[in-house]
Specification:
The structure is a homodimer of 361-residue chains. By secondary structure, chain A is an alpha/beta fold. Chain A contains ten helices and 15 strands. Helix content of chain A is 36%, strand content 16%. In chain A, strand 3, helix 4 and strand 4 form a beta-alpha-beta unit.
Chain lengths: 361, 361
Amino acid sequence: MPRVHNFNAGPAALPLPALERAQRELLDHDGTGMSIIEHSHRGKAFEAVHNEAISLLRQLLDVPDDYHVLFQYGGASHQFAVVPLNLLHAGRSADYIITGGWSEKAYQEAERIGTVRVAGTTEVDKRYTRIPRQEELTLDPNAAYVHMTTNNTLFGTQWHWLPETGDVPLVADMSSDFLWRRIDVRRFGLIYAGAQKNIGPSGLTVVLARKDLVDGGRKDIPTIFRYATHATNNSLYNTPPTFAIYLVRNVLAYTVETGGLDEVERRNRRKAELLYGTIDERPDFFRAPVEAASRSFMNVVFRLPSEELEKRFIAEAAREGMVGLAGHRSTGGIRVSLYNAVEVASVEFLVSFMRAFASRG
Amino acid sequence: MPRVHNFNAGPAALPLPALERAQRELLDHDGTGMSIIEHSHRGKAFEAVHNEAISLLRQLLDVPDDYHVLFQYGGASHQFAVVPLNLLHAGRSADYIITGGWSEKAYQEAERIGTVRVAGTTEVDKRYTRIPRQEELTLDPNAAYVHMTTNNTLFGTQWHWLPETGDVPLVADMSSDFLWRRIDVRRFGLIYAGAQKNIGPSGLTVVLARKDLVDGGRKDIPTIFRYATHATNNSLYNTPPTFAIYLVRNVLAYTVETGGLDEVERRNRRKAELLYGTIDERPDFFRAPVEAASRSFMNVVFRLPSEELEKRFIAEAAREGMVGLAGHRSTGGIRVSLYNAVEVASVEFLVSFMRAFASRG
């Protein structure tokens, strides 16, 4: 079967050369006579891969020296618990900015662990169609941290500015737009991102964390949940998901080889421009619920005139080799995920299909 | 490079046909035009793999209907915390039987969470050379559970009987001997096993748990740590490590095709017999510290007359294509891991090398 156009929301498309490298090397890693999957996490072969992945992340994002780069397991849902377990000290409160289903979940999990406040929400009738403005936030200057979700996969919104939080550390769930472009890591106290959107397979989470936050983290929690445990052991306290780290290494190495994050951003902007441009050409047919200034470059959501047409759209697109276009089961409609590995050519193919579909009505 | 003889302690050797299948299918899973890694965890293609893996586990171990089969992340170290978080209710105490470094760690993590007792230990001078006898255990009939480690990778011991715990549920860390043969699941309240020894890559943990224990688990803990959360959602509450589950499926399917656990046990017994037989032939040269009745079928540890000879043994074996023979950094000596995927031929090769090495002195 020829390769499809994969618009999945995550796990999602990965760069073909990174997968081809994995395929080529799968039975014999680097001339060692065994698979990377069969290597000890304490051996030289894996250690080289592990450290290369960390150093590629540092290089791509210019991660400052006073930040740890950690590999964790369990995805964002695990971090929803682990962030407050580490950072929400007794007697303190944390601020959560709610911009979609995932920030709701992060808030609810934190609520089970300590004192939390909603510092702002753009929810209207259980929907979120925009990112809040600074003046809509009521931030507690004494908060332990402010939590935000930089990109909202369900509702197709994305922050294009960062809230001003003064001395309060900003904690960001960046699972769905991590590495979509350069960011200024210094603006954040802690960033976490499940790998399965932009950088690799599911089962691995990258955490960038300011060292003082890690060192000052709560000590009265299980050892395995402490960021400090993983920081002290270079993310090798326990056996990490070695193949996932290997594949992230392949993706990051490929990213560097092909122009780094500037080139990634250029392609991502081009793809979003193509798709939103096509939606905006036919406002009578394609209805984009998201406020223009809050539109996501990663997940583009829109509706057609009827659910009947939406079903037909998804089915016909599938027949032409385009998959992953159904909106989240909680929202319906169409969702097109444009993660880093989705090719510009796939979006060109999609928009020409969209134009033809809209003409046929 | 030809395939080496891989005696790694974990991550460890996997069956070559399971890896070859992964390699063949890596770019195009089941004619879908994308990698299994790129499939949504909520799509039909992955769902089929996920459910097949669960059903193969049920079939291989005759898992009774009143037990859940769950996929978790984070390995045994994560379970060290999650077991007491779920099962150690306020006002209760749990019993831990200590037979090596991993049970020590399980105990220490549980101690941070609730009240725990040591119900038995075979530690002498920080070493463990045997499994306790029933009469050495001081079990609390009111304990929330009794925790044991069925096989001890560092010290090379293994339980060949099960402690009688009455109505108290037995919780077993089976990471290093899971599926080495059939077991009677009914003897256990809960079993957990990191995949990276006998059944797959690191990053995935299998949990078999009696439904009443899951249902009665603590509700005042973070949602993601509750077994009940994962049970209710067929281990799809959050994005699971999809490729790890896929590869476990390959290993389990291959196990069934090649004769199931009876054949696995037969081969494992043959391998251990060959290796312990060789050790016992030359007690003047090979010193096996473990009491005969407690010897592990999975990890065989022994010493040579000097550390100098041990270093030479490991280096010469490596030159002949045998890797993973160094003992754990905390114990030294030689350790040979004989997990399911290690071929009888590899052990034959090793023992003939051992005999020649011992003759040379």
